[in-house]
Amino acid sequence: MKLKLFVIVLLSVSLASATPRVPQTQYPDTPAAHQFAAWLEVFNSGDRAKMLEFLQKNQPDRAGDIDGEIGFRRMTGGFVFKKAEESTATHFSGVVKERESDTFARFAIDVEAAEPHHITKFDLNQIPIPAEFALPRMSQDPALAALRVEIEKQVAADHFAGAVLVAKDGKPVFTGAYGLADRDKKSPNRLDTQFRIGSMNKMFTAVSVLQLAQAGKIKLTDPLGKYLTDYPNKDLASKVTIHHLLTHTGGTGDFFGPEFDKHRLELRTLQDYVKLYGQRGVEFEPGSKWAYSNYGFLLLGVLIEKVSGQSYYDYVAEHVYKPAGMTLTASLPEDQAVAGRSVGYTRFREQPGPGDSAAPAPDAWLPNTDTLPYRGTSAGGGYSTVEDLLRFANAIQNHKLLDAEHTELLTTGKVETGGGGKYGYGFGERSFGGMHCFGHGGGAPGMNGDLEICPQAGFVVAVLANLDPPAAQRVSDFVLNRLPEK
Fold first, then answer.
1. How far apart are CA 289 and CA 247, in angstroms?
2. Residues 200-210, buried b or exposed e (16+ Cβ, 10 A)?
3. Structure confidence at residue 188 as a pLDDT band (50, 70, 90)
4. Fewest 10 Å CB contacts: which of 303, 355, 360, 365?
5. How high is the pLDDT of residue 52?
6. 457 to each of 40, 169, 423, 436, 483, how far by Cα in Å?
């Protein structure tokens, strides 16, 4: 089982207003609460056999994805129960916190009324830090000192390897590189090490599209088919607008999955993806909801090529990287050597089968080579450095890439994404307490990154890692939850 997306998509539950509230930190004496407590104990143990036995007994439909459960346990490090919220005999909800990070989540569990009280529904959704558990803000120097201690702890536990940069008013106030870029060669990570950035280059794609809009070459309200007149699925082309694609509201779906695995190394150009997936229709009425869509951003790259007359790669190099001063950001194919590019290491892979004694230990870090596409696309991929990401952030804020009007249009949240955040055009918008930031993360096997631009506070945080998520995200969130808000 391969985890292609490091997003735990869990549907929220509708709770009747008549459900009694239980604002307490101890478990109620109910079947639903007992089942939750039992699950939490087994999940936190990290014991594969115990987790599988629990699921087989209590929620058999989830037992078939035990690898996913183990991967989720590895990502979170387990949870601490913080408080109960709503409780009946068959329903229990409340709040938990990741043991190894500042991340909070709301859980909701439903069980059958009759013994043995099988679990019928179990949801877990990330939420902003509740006000009652808010972290105290620090002044800048103590916050950065705490960050250094936290990173060293993560490195010692082999949970982080990468580079970290914090800037104030455009200039670095904290930099550091940790761990190994290549574990076989013992090459250390450096500030100028190039890390694969996953979905972070959706920001570059969105900037490119807004540049074309600013130049009057496209209208964001136009349907895709106005520009891609030969797009295979005419219904999609006529219904999905550029605005829908930029905001993940077009219903255009993903391209990761069995078909991608089968053709991974054959997909060499953006048009190759269209040939493989272009007959598909929309998954829901465009504009009716938000659903993260890698294929939607792939189509934005095709749009850029059509309107500009350049390849996607040439366009972003000339119109984004060059004016921003980004000299170490690109998307060369994986079969071309890049001297400063780190090796990505992953634990997300198929578990060894029975009797497979030659398989590596489940917790061993292995190169992510056999998961990588041939080349990064407008939806994700490529590589950058933390210093280049700061240059990009400064260029955005100093209007070197877009005028003030289109910069605001680019970075302002337009649709709720859950967990307290909003999505603009290729940029997510969220708050860390009272600190408002915009940016984008990226994650896939052996890579994780985050860029957060916080204009009112004057901070930019860039973290890149050559390990699985949430290696970089955990570090980024840690410092943003502690830096001063002004």
1. 10
2. bbbbbbbbbbb
3. very high
4. 355
5. 93
6. 38, 9, 20, 8, 9
Task: Measure the CA–CA gap between 85 and 88, rounded to whole angstroms.
Answer: 11
Using CA atoms, how far apart are residues 11 and 26, in angstroms rounded to an integer? 25
pLDDT at 17 over 60: no
What residues pair up with 432 in beta bridges, in sequence order?
Answer: 435
Nearest to 338 by CA among 328, 347, 326: 328
Q: What is the pLDDT of residues 389-447, one digit of tens each?
A: 999 999 999 999 999 999 999 999 999 998 789 999 999 999 998 899 999 999 999 99
Could you report the per-residue pLDDT of 75-125, keeping only the tens digit for each?
888 999 999 999 999 999 999 999 989 999 999 999 999 999 999 999 999
- Summarised one tens digit per residue, pLDDT across range 269-288 is 999 999 999 999 999 999 99
CA 316 to each of CA 209, 295, 463: distance values in angstroms, whole numbers, following the listed order: 10, 18, 22
Task: Work out whether strand 447-454 and strand 459-465 pair parallel, antiparallel, or are unpaired.
Answer: antiparallel
How many Å apart are CA 458 and CA 167, to the nearest integer?
Answer: 8
Cis check: omega of the bond before 455, within 30 degrees of 0: no
Query: What pLDDT does residue 425 have?
Result: 98
Going by pLDDT thresholds of 50, 70 and 90, the confidence category of residue 469 is very high
Architecture of domain 21-133: Roll (3.10)
Residues listed for the chain? 486
> Which class for 214: exposed (0-12), middle (13-18), buried (19 or more C-beta within 10 A)?
middle
| Residues forming CATH 3.40.710.10 domain(s) in the chain | 137-353+361-486
Domain with CATH 3.10.450.50 in the chain: 21-133
Q: What's domain 137-353+361-486's architecture?
A: 3-Layer(aba) Sandwich (3.40)
Residue 74's pLDDT band (boundaries 50, 70, 90)?
confident
